[in-house]
Amino acid sequence: MQPANDSQQEFESLALPLLDALYNFARWLSHDQSEAEDLVQETFAKALRGFSSFAPGTDFRAWMFRILRNTFLTSRTGLQAKLTVPLDPDEEAAAGVTWETPETLAVASATREALQQALSELPLAYREVVLLCDVEEMKYAEIAEVLSVPIGTVMSRLARGRKLLRQMLASQRPAVIRKVDGRR
User: Fold this and answer.
1) What is the pLDDT of residues 148-173, one digit of tens each?
2) How many whole angstroms separate alpha carbon 146 and alpha carbon 81?
3) How far is Cα 184 from Cα 176, in angstroms, rounded to an integer?
4) Would you state the pLDDT for residue 46?
5) Burial class (CB in 10 A: 0-12, 13-18, 19+), 71
6) Is 149 exposed, middle or buried (0-12, 13-18, 19+ CB in 10 A)?
7) Of the candidates 102, 45, 43, which has an alpha carbon nearest to the alpha carbon of residue 72?
8) Rounded Cα distance, 184 and 180, in Å
9) Quick check: 73 and 102 in contact, CB under 8 A?
10) What is the DSSP letter of 85?
11) Which residue in 132, 122, 108, 109 sits closest to 168, CA to CA?
12) What domains can be seen in the chain, in order of their start residue?
């Protein structure tokens, strides 16, 4: 029984540090807290069952994210999202003293809300690439492995996703300013 226990301990030491990142990605994919929790739980269960098939020396993080994504895509919500999204063919600096005012805090909050809204409206094919690159800080090769697409497709989706985000945020700019000013 010792080898199975060693394997489980090795799995835990590799997987547990990824829990928050996997949950954040699941939350963005599903738009639902309880479904995100279920997705992460199912991901961990599948990964533990299949841990013997994981090839040591390969990217464990990408392997876990791929399991999560595949689990999402086979879920009811994932199938709906996949069917409605057209697929594309192709160290922080040290914090200094700041003089934040209520106005600057309101602008930052409104901007964060606008970004979250724009991200949630982004088509799934672009949203997952933007999140994996810009939030989870994965390299293009890791993203390509997670999504099972060529690196060129990752780069194309990332560029188009960022462009769509810029367009959405630019169109929301007057609404953000009105919100900060207290006008609706």
Assistant:
1) 999 999 999 999 999 998 898 888 76
2) 18
3) 9
4) 94
5) buried
6) middle
7) 43
8) 9
9) no
10) S
11) 122
12) 1-84 (1.10.1740.10), 100-184 (1.10.10.10)
Q: Which two tokens stand for residue 31?
A: 């738009």
Q: How far apart are CA 1 and CA 116, in angstroms?
A: 47
The ranges of the chain with pLDDT < 50 are 1, 83-85, 87-97, 176-178, 180-181, 183-184
**Cα–Cα dist 65/172, whole Å:** 31
Residue with tokens 């497709």: 153
In 3D space, the residue among 125, 55, 115 whose CA is nearest the CA of residue 87 turns out to be 125
Q: Can you spell out the DSSP letters for 108-168?
A: HHHHHHHHHHHHHHS-HHHHHHHIIIIIS---HHHHHHHHTS-HHHHHHHHHHHHHHHHHH
pLDDT of residue 25: 92
- C-alpha–C-alpha distance, residues 172 and 115, integer Å: 10
Q: In the structure encoding, which two tokens stand for residue 11, read together?
A: 């799995």
- For the chain, give percent helix, strand, coil, nearest 5: 80, 0, 20
The pLDDT of residue 117? 86
